[in-house]
Amino acid sequence: MDDEKHKEYTGISNKKILENVKKMATLNKSMVIRIPVIPGFNDSTENIKQTAEFVKENVKNPKMELLPYHMLGLDKYKALGLYDYIYKFEVPSKEKINDLEGVIENCGVGVVRYK
Question: What's the predicted TM-score (pTM) here?
Answer without folding.
Answer: 0.84
